[in-house]
Amino acid sequence: MTIPVSNPPQKPCRIRCCTVGGCLSANSLAVKQQLETAVTAAGLDDQVTVSGVGCMGLCSQGPLVQIDPSGELYAKVMPDQAVQIVAQAGGTGHGDRIGRAESEPHEFVRQNANATAAHPLTPLSATLPFFTRQHRIVLENSGLIDPERIEDYRAARGYEALHQSLRDMPPAAVIDVITRSGLRGRGGAGYPTGLKWATVAKMPPGQKYVVCNADEGDPGAYMDRSVLESDPHRVLEGMAIAAYAVGANQGYIYVRGEYPLAISHLQTAIRQAKRHGLLGSQIFDSPFDFRVDLRIGAGAFVCGEETALMASIEGKRGIPRPRPPYPAESGLWGCPSLINNVETFANIAPIIRNGADWFAAIGTAHSKGTKVFSLTGNVQHAGLIEVPMGISLRTVVATMGQGAPDGAQVKAVQTGGPSGGCVPAAAFDTPVDYESLKALGSIMGSGGMIVMDEHTRMVEVAQFFMEFCMDESCGKCIPCRAGTVQLYQLLTKFKNHQATPADLDQLETLCDMVKHTSLCGLGQAAPNPVLSTLRYFRNEYLAAMEPFPHHVQA
Amino acid sequence: MNRASAVTKTSSRPVSDQRLRLLAAAMKRHQHRPDALIEVLHTAQELYGHLELELLLYIAHSLRLPPSQVYGVATFYHFFSLEPKGAHSGVVCMGTACYVKGAAQLLSTLEQKTGIQAGETTPDRQFSLMTARCLGACGIAPAVVFDDQLEGHQTADTICDRLHTCLSATE
Q1: Pairwise CB contact (< 8 Å): B140 & A298
Q2: Domain range for residue A305?
Q3: Cβ–Cβ gap B132/A298 under 8 Å
């Protein structure tokens, strides 16, 4: 029996405080507590709600607090500033709107007017390009709803898409909508989602599984963490719709052990969804059953590769196997399995609700919709952004991120993690889509976008990534196991200015070999950071073949 | 935590205590299914702090798995430790965003201060220094975690202060 949604009456004013991710580390729970105390002290309990919400995006400026309905946004809020914020919410301009007698909040504002001198609030303009250039689909609820309350998600039209699918659409129609929307896998490879679903759906009826890949291993990327922490029900809903479409009744979410808060929010969400009858048996009184279990990763990058991930869910070492057979034919315990990334599942509900054409109208010809990026590194406004496909890298880095701090020049952007490459500043007019980034020798990847300034040495960046791949190689196939070690040693020679021209040849030959002969994506993509830095910053490698000191500027 | 008390050296079965009861209950909850191995190892490490060989043998026996497979899984994943950890821990994130923001310098500062390398524990078993692949705190890079408390925007000075507070918490 599915519990119908009921919305409690809203208070006229709401103070939202981010209580996940970076803001949480910056003591935002104490801020939220102080806000609640201050609201009670001001006698505004019946007028103002204080909510802990998910990520608002500009993580580098956290903790972030925003006031509804005025939209005032404050950065780097300290617990002792709570009084000022409550005064702001209850006093300036809102007194009449919230229908409070003049005396109380204004008295409160007066009393606390002097408390502001020590730590004045840091207001942030909501018209910053960082916010205005975004197009939020996956993150539409992030920072607006309390991720630990299913009521909030349902009030934001949550689980409507699942209801609509079960009530009005046969499974084939669901797959048709996803196919026509042009959605492609957001884990990095960009395989058409509808095609993958159709393959699993076509397999003979019987036990099938839906798996959510939340093993976000790329260093410098935290989109999935944020989605799971800020809006976990959205992922569950996407998985349930997928399960209905392909004929599965069991789902697994494989989430990194490094993300304790994401795990906790997922556990809460699964419990709540079961209680509301949105997971379990006969969902929305239809014959459709679906259960979801969590599997916690144990720290192995290679488990983001789908066959390794499935081995890990089965309780084994996370070692990839050759494909075919693809998981769609023979996956978990040999059964047909659909594996999609967190962000892919997070896109499903809005597509069902708004239709394929709506989604297909966003983005470029071959890359539809939006993409969430974690814009980090040497950039002034670091955080999480969701932008339409096709936006230029320059808009993202220079306009939204406001360039590098301290007036430094931006030199390159690294996308795609250890499997991606570095895009030089000269190519920043390239639109962000799967094909364009690939043509530049990088990949879209899962969404890490690390800005590097002029002080970054590219040989060291290549060595950094190679060390990563060397450590994370599972050791099954020789090109990856031994090749990454050899590449790392060669790069170390370059870093230490001991390389010879023969080493450069060797480096290029070996990159080619590892790329073409490794078993899985980890090895095949491991040389990418080297190849892309060789392509765009070759002079740094050449300079590294000369003895110290060198004066070459890239 | 006392290392010797965790598991007896002589028998192939860990000492029967509250932790073992909790571990047995966790395995029962998974119906002793072999595919629950990683979940069970997570629980075991949470209870005991690390995974001794006797404990792994006990788990292998309970889940009806060959000891080689249990040992293989326990050593494959970075999360599981077969060695006891120090009373306090410091983890420096070495993700790309932290790296370009100077995480390597933070790590070498800590290595100098503590006299141990990443992955090691001080001889007095007070402090373990570790690195992480990426903690997903890229927006506030560089990030470190002292005793499960994540903090961003670190510098060499703040990290030394944190190390000091973290270590003095025991005395």
Answers
A1: no
A2: 150-360
A3: no
Boundaries of domain holding B19: 3-76
Domain boundary residue, one of A330, A360, A390: A360
* Residue in this structure with the two tokens 């009521």, named with its chain if needed: A151
Distance CA A226, CA A64 (A): 15
**A456 chain-B contacts, CB cut-off 8 A:** 100
B153 in the same domain as B92? yes
Q: What pLDDT, in 10s, does the model give residues A239-297? A: 999 999 999 999 999 999 999 999 999 999 999 999 999 999 999 999 999 999 999 99
Do B93 and B63 share a domain, yes or no? no
In a domain, B9, yes or no: yes
A380 → chain B, closest CA residue: B139
- What does the pLDDT read at residue A115? 56
Domain final position from B27, B44, B76: B76
Q: Which amino acid is at A406?
A: D
Determine whether A272 is exposed, middle or buried from the number of CB atoms within 10 Å of its CB (0-12, 13-18, 19+). Answer: buried
A218, A445 in Cβ contact below 8 A?
yes
Residues B71 and B119 in one domain: no
- Which of A401, A418, A484, A412 minimizes the C-alpha distance to A220? A418
pTM, rounded to two decimals: 0.93
Inter-chain CB proximity B42 and A295 less than 8 Å: no
What total of structural domains would you count in chain A?
4
A377 and B80: CB-CB below 8 Å? Answer: no
Question: Is A31 an interface residue toward B (CB < 8 Å)?
Answer: no
Asked if residue A470 is part of any domain, the answer here is: yes
pLDDT digits (tens, 9 = 90+) for A491-525: 999 999 999 999 999 999 999 999 999 999 999 99
Average pLDDT value for residue range B109-133 = 93
